[in-house]
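1st attempt posting a full record on here, be nice pls
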Amino acid sequence: SFSPLVNPLYPVVLWLFRTPFGEGSGYFLLGLCQNILLVCSIFSLVDYLKGKFKFGFSFYLLLLTLCSFSILAQKLFTQAGIISSNVLFSEALTIPLYFYFFRYAFQAFSEQDKKAFLYTCLFATALILTRGQLYWVLVVVFVIRLSFSGGHRGKALLSAVLVCAVIAGCVEGTRAVYYMSLPDDPDKSPAS
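the predicted structure (as tokens):
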């Protein structure tokens, strides 16, 4: 049983799967979807890097293997009792968000791609909604936005501050709405 006073993204995702499919099937489908998301995020990152740096197939396989270790590590740590199974489910949502965040952050920074920057902001928001201690991703967002300055440092600085403030506001607003929506009985919350 989860505490309802956690970051809102994962309990809501858990609730979305458990409500229509029940506890047994819901957990199975959630695990399946999270693993598909993880595999897609790994390929997205590694395929982007392969296209960007034009490295060979051997290095491509090495990167896929290294990124895929995140799947194996989760399972090994759970079996060894280092992390509990509910952390496994939660991390299975967070790790793909990391891969997507870094993939789009790198693209936004290296190519000055504003669409990739938008995706970076969306994945930063999702990461913070999953883990409150991940506010550090706003530093990455800030630096990328500054890199778009084009000689107008003052406007870029103001814009970077505003982008980070909007993300933080969305996160805190979502948390406030989530916490206010919790029933007084913790057993009836989406996270339990």
